[in-house]
Task: structure prediction
Amino acid sequence: MSTLFVDEQVTLRRPRDTDDFGFSLSDGVFEKGVYVGAIRPGGPAAGALKPYDRVLQVRHPHSVNKVKVKVAHSRLPSVGVRS
Result:
């Protein structure tokens, strides 16, 4: 993997099963893959994910209110990125 990314697994929990996990997905523009698009401020993903993180795997444990997301955190600066 490129030195522009650092792999990590994060666990996201939502308060209720009617809520979302607080982030959107986007496809890659210059490279194939699935990337984090935007982060909802104050949502479960805030502080754990950031725009342009590459999603490597999503696991859904036995709870409907928790997911484990393996991402490659982008080391690119997020200056000027709307979240």
